[in-house]
Amino acid sequence: LCSNNNPYASFGxxxxxxxxxxxxxxxxxxxxxxxxxDRVLYNMIVVRNQLDKxxxxxxxxxxxxxxxxxxxxxxxxxxxxILEDLGFQKEADSLLSVTKLSIISDSxxxxxxxxxxxxxxxxxxxxxxxxxxSERYLFVVDRLIALDAADEFxxxxxxxxxxxxxxxxxDEGPR
Length: 175
What we know:
InterPro entries: Melanoregulin (IPR031638). This is MREG protein. This protein has 175 residues and is mainly alpha-helical. The chain contains seven helices and no strands. It has one domain. It has helices spanning 11-21, 36-49, 56-85, 92-96, 109-123, 135-146, 150-160.
């Protein structure tokens, strides 16, 4: 157990680092979906890594990358908290997991899922003010429709993350 030849010694550290870089699925998962927001983050990382670490441009990009990652974590955390409050404690992570193999359960649900997602964006603060809708949440809403929980999710999101006058973002709401 104490051998320096253990190939699994850094497994936890590697997994944690990979998870930080890719918040949506296991990075080594061949089914990983690369959405537009993933490409934006990836391109920022590539550009930053080509710059001198002492430069202002590197520091600015590093800050922007950190901010984007934190925003994505915050949005995912908000969705997960609502799912858990609705009784999906064990299923929350799998409901939020989107891969290349993810499909819309019923093509008739697509427009309803899109409408609910837009309603969440416009009428709640579950997403930050500057957020551009991510396609992955369309799949999540579709799953909620299939579980007959989409309307309850919207009601809970409205109660926990109400839209404030003037577009101010609500911080963590009551649970």
